[in-house]
Amino acid sequence: MDGQPASSGTKTPIRAIPVRHWGQQISGVIVVAVLAAFLYAVATNDNLNWSVIAANLFGPTILSGLWVTISLTILSMIIGVILGVSVAVMRLSPNRVLNSVAGGYIWVFRGTPVLVQLLLWFNMALFFPRLGLGEFSLDTNTVITAFVAALLGLGLNEGAYMAEIVRGGILSVDHGQSEASMALGMRRRSTMFKIVLPQAMRVIIPPMGNQVITMLKMTSLVTVIAAPDLLNRAQVISSRNFYIFELLIVASIWYLALTTISTLIQMRLEKRFARGVAGTAPRRQRVLRNLKPGRATSPVAPPVDQPIVDTKGGAGS
């Protein structure tokens, strides 16, 4: 009969019938139908001019704004990471002055909205008309342009968040690692940058990837200070041809494309820094290893009538 072991050495496969979840299947069909109806309504909407979307998707004005958005994202993240690592090390320092300054920086920039910080940097000339020392000074509006104000606002705000992310990653590393390296004669700075931080990257990378995606979308805020980013360029075009919704779709397509690329890069980095921790080799290595002659991919169950050998007490029944 099915499901009962045979008396010989061969095993009869168990005929298992999977449990049917009718509620999940019906809800899945409903969701797919609603999604298909929405996409059909959008695709066949007479008020939506797809030719305008196609004409502006790779237009020079949109591409120039796209380049500004990518530049702002990369440069702001570089500033944020450098500041975040420095402030996190200061925050963990036994020096009370450094610790207090780092805590104050995090408190100020995390406690105020990034939009307010952008407006403050852009209007810096109201408080400091000129920047410099003595006779060597420049007009503030010449130095802090809309792009520089956007870079300062986004980068300094990101530094406060990255400081907490890096601090959490450093604290996740066992303190015995630091003690062992210092017992071997390594200095505190070498211990931090050669022992602790490389291990903390496994914890830092996932939230850092989220911060990159958040930064990419947060660059749209610089539109309020007239920085020529992707959304600003789309609004400039729509103010001339009055196709507002179509240009917003163009900007959304590019934001989705950039977010997808950032997500894929984040996944690759997570796999790279998780090597040796998860306990499993990459898929390609596992496949090649299993192709070796004589390699058993799964344990083979002994025949039913074969006596079980006890390695300690001899053969049993």
Just give the CATH class: Mainly Alpha
Query: How many domains, in number, for the residues?
Result: 1
Largest sheet: 2 strands, antiparallel
Shape: flat
CATH topology-level name: MetI-like fold
GO biological process, one term: amino acid transport
Organism: Cryobacterium psychrophilum
GO molecular function, one term: transmembrane transporter activity
Keywords: Amino-acid transport, Cell membrane, Membrane, Transmembrane, Transmembrane helix, Transport
Describe the protein in words:
- By secondary structure, the protein is mainly alpha-helical.
- The chain has one domain: MetI-like fold.
- It has twelve helices and four strands, in the order αααααββαααααααββ.
- The strands form two sheets. The protein has a two-stranded antiparallel sheet.
- The longest helix has 32 residues, at 60-91.
Task: List the keywords.
single chain; 317 residues; mainly alpha; MetI-like fold; two-stranded antiparallel ribbon; two-stranded antiparallel sheet; 4 strands; 4% strand; flat; disordered C terminus
Describe the protein's topology:
Layout: H1 22-43, H2 50-57, H3 60-91, H4 96-111, H5 114-122, E1 130-133, E2 136-139, H6 140-143, H7 146-172, H8 175-183, H9 188-218, H10 230-241, H11 244-273, H12 283-290, E3 309-310, E4 314-315
Antiparallel strand pairs: 1-2, 3-4
Can you summarize this structure?
The chain has 317 residues and is mostly helical.
